[in-house]
Amino acid sequence: MDPFRPAAPDDSPAPARPVNVLLFAVAGAVTVANIYFPQPLLAAVARGLDVSERTAGLIASAAQIGYALGILLLVPLADTARLRRLTSVLLALTTAALLVAASAPGVITLTVATLALSTTTVLPQILTPVAAVLAGPGRQGRVVGLVGLGLTLGSTLSRTVSGAVTDVSGSWRTAYVVAAVATAALLCVLPRRLPERLGAPGHTSYARLLAGLPKLLAVHRELRVSALLGACVFAAFSVFWAVLAFHLAAPPLGYGPGAAGLFGVLTLPAALLSATAGPLTDRYGAPFVSAGGLGLAGLGLGVAGLVPYSSVGLVAGANLLVVGVSSCQVANQARIFGIGRTVAARVNTVFMLATFGGGALGSLAGSWLYAEHGWSAALVAAGVFVAVGGIVAVRSGQAVPSCVPDATREAGCIRPRIPQGES
Questions:
Q1: 13-416: which CATH number, 3.90.1150.10, 1.10.10.10, 1.10.1040.10, 1.20.1250.20?
Q2: For tag attachment on the chain, is the N or C end more exposed, with fewer CB atoms within 10 Å?
Q3: Helix 53-73 / helix 18-36 crossing angle, nearest 10 deg
Q4: When comparing pLDDT for 365 and 263, which is higher?
């Protein structure tokens, strides 16, 4: 099947029922939490395994790198594979890797287990395009926003839960066991609520699925812009959260893992507010919402940098950062899903690969800069990432889009613009 050929309307999956969209949001929250819940535990892990904070910071980087690998190698399968079988396998593998991490005797085993579990916990990036395709034209922004809200809640509240579990149990290992139980529970519920396939059965080989990713990036300018913006804002986001636990644990603050995790609860208003990004994108367009998100993210970093030892200031900065990054994410994903349902998983692969590649870079840069130069240096790096995103947004504002709507919009697709003289 031509990856740019619109699917016929009668090949479209049936529209999703509201309960399924809600389940997708919950499942996305639980599985994406596996990437973020270790972040408040890094100081406790460093003490428990008798390693430096810089070495413990490699765990956060391994999570981002593994997630990027999973997005590249596994998410494209959702365009052609049996979704129920694929989902079951991924959930089972993630559960097993979490249990290995919980029993890790040293930092090397823990880092390798983190790399493995983050590679297979890519279900959120399969559920998002599935929900967008099932929503149909005109509702994609709202549905992506709802699923995105689940991802935001999972990424933020997971830090609170893991910190609290560690404080109560006295061991960071308990948090990994809890995550394994939650992931295993999804295995009993989610697969049966998914459609059998995202699109019509095809015969595209796995190698061709992966080989076609650069072509998608080359053809669709919206995908290139969204990928760059996603990488920039998520790099800034990852810098902040990768070093926050160290900053809160250091003098003069001296907080423990529970306090670091509490920031998840305190950023709940931002997570809820980010749900408005979907309807705003449907109404005003992705560029408008992305620009606003970049501004809020930059403002949040500025506040956190100006008052580094004020709990109120840090909470305010974290809220602004969360709502800004989440809004950019929803807007950019709504934009790329307009390219076409037959390639929905693959365009999401390209976008999320760029996004979490940026996240891995941010985590690594943040951990190194904090260890060498402290909190302010890490936030300056985060601000540079946001500034680069702003430059990309401004430079892309006047360009002609690479896709034009046509009659195939009713099939959930947009035809790529073909230059004159080509067929």
A1: 1.20.1250.20
A2: C
A3: 140
A4: 365
